[in-house]
Design brief:
Mean pLDDT: 93
Structural class: alpha+beta
Low-confidence stretches: none
DNA sequence: GCCAACGTTGGC
DNA sequence: GCCAACGTTGGC
């Protein structure tokens, strides 16, 4: 069992969108970064825990808990010339990019904001707060996972 | 809107 | 294979 954090701009696809999706599940597609792709393809397994992070909004932070709902498969958007994530260099026989189904588990009682994560010494080593870290899919340790859940569990006391 | 940081591209 | 130019991310 491993843990992950995935980033999404809520104006593009929010945690509420995921909750409203059929089976509370959606394909995590459009990833076009090799490091993130490797996590999707090689690191993630069904049942892994996922922290759902909202970026480029106010406030930014972890808003919900999700899980990996199945294995990685080719991302169809790479073959669609009309899709903004179209990759003309990717071949159907050997797809470059993959997607993973993500299922919403539950919304946190409150948003665990980026500012709080930065202020929490227990989370100082999270990739999220490392200088220049922009990975949209990143591993999270068991301890970091537990701490973020603890912070988000109660509306009281940030 | 700015800009730091990083990834990708392409000329050589 | 180097590296400058360019594009993207994402907080502020």
């Amino acid at each position: 069992m491993q843990y992950w954090l995935i980033k999404s701009e809520p104006t593009v696809f929010s945690f509420e969108d995921l909750l409203a999706a059929p089976g509370r599940t959606a394909a995590w597609d459009g990833v076009r970064n090799y490091q993130a792709r490797n996590s999707l393809r090689d690191g993630m397994h069904a049942g892994d825990g996922v922290l759902y992070y909202h970026s480029s909004c106010e406030p930014t932070g972890v808003v919900g808990i999700a899980e990996v709902a199945g294995p990685a498969e080719p991302d169809p958007t790479q073959f669609d010339p009309r899709d903004e994530h179209f990759d003309p260099k990717s071949k159907r026989a050997a797809p470059t990019w993959v997607q993973v189904p993500i299922r919403a588990r539950k919304k946190l009682a409150r948003v665990v904001e980026l500012t709080e994560i930065k202020a929490n010494p227990a989370l100082a080593r999270m990739l999220l707060v490392q200088r220049g870290s922009r990975l949209s899919v990143q591993p999270v340790t068991r301890e970091e996972w537990a701490e973020v859940l603890r912070m988000g569990a109660s509306k009281a006391a940030k």
